[in-house]
Amino acid sequence: MAPVTEIVLHSLKPGTDVESFYKTFTIIKEKSAAQVIRASTVHENPEQVGIFIDWDSIEAHKAFEADEVSYNAFISLAKPHLTKFPLLFHAELTPFPPAVLNNAEGKGKTPVAHVLFTYFAPDTDAAKTLIEAQNFVSKLTGAGFAGLTGESSLGWSVEKDVDFKGEKTRVLVIILGWESVQAHLEARETDAWKSTIGEFRGGAEGLKGFEVIHVTTKDL
């Protein structure tokens, strides 16, 4: 049983107090075997919240869901804050735990995590594509872009039925550490960045699309 990071993107109702929403996760913290619960509003959309929970295994998460009293209590408290069912999956990230997600309160050396969700056909050659992604990350971190912290983590979703624009996909998650969102925005305007991104996308068989968010997490 491999350790996993549960990744959830919640959409909050307008006007929701995010700290009140965060308090609902106290139940998970107290009633489950979750290692750590990280949370952040998304820089691109403050009404979207990213949750990143490290578990010993998917089975550990399922054990919490099987505790009907605790799980239903969490759902009943969280649901009124949300507009729709969230994006949710589990990723087997390397390295684990993903230190690149330890962003706020001076806990780590990465103030901002750039999270890239790349959506692939479920039957994509996972091993081959993972090697390509590792090479992609190595090229980026070795290119000397100003503002990169050097921390990263990546890995496949366990699930192969993650919805992306009506299609079932498997998600390859790539996380890079930055000193600021602005540093990343400036880097991606360079020819070197565009070339490296283009090379990865051009060689990625089965790629359906991608999404990018920036987060600065804190532990709940």
Keywords, separated by commas or semicolons:
Alpha-Beta Plaits, 10 strands, alpha+beta, 7 helices, 220 residues, 34% strand, five-stranded antiparallel sheet
Describe the protein's architecture and organization.
The chain is an alpha+beta fold and 220 residues long. It folds into two domains: 4-91, Alpha-Beta Plaits (2-Layer Sandwich), CATH 3.30.70; 109-214, Alpha-Beta Plaits. It contains seven helices and ten strands. It has helices at 18-23, 26-31, 58-66, 68-78, 126-141, 181-187, 191-203, and strands spanning 4-11, 36-42, 45-55, 87-91, 112-120, 148-156, 162-164, 167-178, 207-215, 218-219. The strands form two sheets. The protein has a five-stranded antiparallel sheet. Strands 5, 6, 7, 8 and 9 form a five-stranded antiparallel sheet that branches. Helix 5 packs antiparallel against helix 7. The longest helix is centred in the middle third of the chain and has 16 residues, at 126-141. It is globular and about 50 Å long. The two termini are 25 Å apart. The mean pLDDT is 95.
Helix-strand makeup class: alpha+beta
Q: What is the gyration radius calculated from CA atoms?
A: 17 Å
CATH class of the largest domain: Alpha Beta
Give the number of DSSP strands: 10
CATH fold node name of the largest domain: Alpha-Beta Plaits
Strand order across the biggest sheet?
Answer: 4-1-3-2-10
The main pleated sheet reads as:
5 strands, antiparallel
The outline comes out as globular
Counted up, domains total 2
Helix and strand run: EHHEEHHEEHEEEHHEE
Which stretches are poorly predicted, pLDDT < 50 over at least 5 residues? none
Strand portion: 25-35%
Mean pLDDT: 95
Architecture per CATH nomenclature, i.e. the level-2 architecture of the largest domain: 2-Layer Sandwich
Helix content range: 25-40%
The DSSP helix count reads 7
How far apart the termini lie comes to 25 Å
